[in-house]
Automatic annotation (TrEMBL):
It comes from Crassostrea virginica. Keywords: Membrane, Signal, Transmembrane, Transmembrane helix. The lineage of its organism: Eukaryota, Metazoa, Spiralia, Lophotrochozoa, Mollusca. Residues 1-22 form the signal peptide. The chain crosses the membrane at residues 233-254. This is Uncharacterized protein LOC111101677 isoform X2.
Amino acid sequence: MTRCTVLFSCLLVEVMCLIVFSFENVALNKSAWQQDTVFNYAAKRGVDGRKSSLSRFGDECVTSEYNATSEWRVDLEHVLSIHHISILFATDDKDWNKDNELTKYFLGFSAYISNTTEREDGILCFRDTTYTRATIPNPINIPCPHYGRFVTYYNNRTHIPYPEGYSDTTASFLCEVEVYGCSDQGKFGENCSMPCPPKCLKNSCDITKGTCFECIVGYLGPTCEIKEKKPQYPLPFLCGAVGFLVIVVSITSYRCCIKGTRGNAQFSPEDEIIPQNLSTQVHSEDLFFKRKHL
């Protein structure tokens, strides 16, 4: 590898880092919650910005009880546009490798973004299905360009048998969770300097591309710039439909009128008509006249 190539690669990495870190850590010092807190190792430690010591039993990391499930979440206070999530696991200030006993508690974890405290109401950003005690990174960066209010870390040991290397129980040994995005709603791009397209539903768009997640009613396209056309029907079709409607209305009106006339007519007993066979009636009259002339 030439010196120029190395310099270019380093420059590219620096530029990418600048782009990533142009987003703000919107989770810093926000309110947090966790399941089964141990003593005063509270959930808020996971967003206090302190990470000089990665010990479970220091004063900078979150610690929960060993259980079949573990859950921790941060409330961003508003629905914000998010770029990525960074999670720093506790190490007990030891080397991070397959021999570190804490690695087994993080295998199989998931990360979610949601608008409610129910994680499954939102989207799954990541679920570990491949890491081993030797390969799980620390910290781990999870791209998740979406929008939401709550970011949740979750793990479980509820489906036996577990993969090789997994612990029998789990716990939230987290030292810092950083959520990078835009603190201003409806913004995207580097430094969150550009507004989302005006037709994006709830003013929410992809934090890097500016494409809308959803459009307001009546608009289509990546940035909701296309006005949805109303369906056009040919003139013969419209004429036929109108004609059919007129016929149906006419028949209905006629039936209603006939029914109404029959219902309102008044008859006296003298007006009652007894139906007779016409041929029989005529024959009786002929017999009467014949007898009279005899």
